[in-house]
Amino acid sequence: MLPTSPGADEIADLLNRIEGEPNLLAKRAEMRVGGVLEGTRFVVTECYDD
Question: How far is C-alpha 11 from the geometric centre of its chain's CA atoms?
Fold first, then answer.
């Protein structure tokens, strides 16, 4: 069972963290399906490979 969807405040917090820590986005882009983004309730549900 997946956790409940994050709210607008959680999404805004994530975007603010990424803005303050540019390397965070690249690190999270390496996560696989099922991974939980550290410090959040976000779960990776899809991955795309180029």
Answer: 9
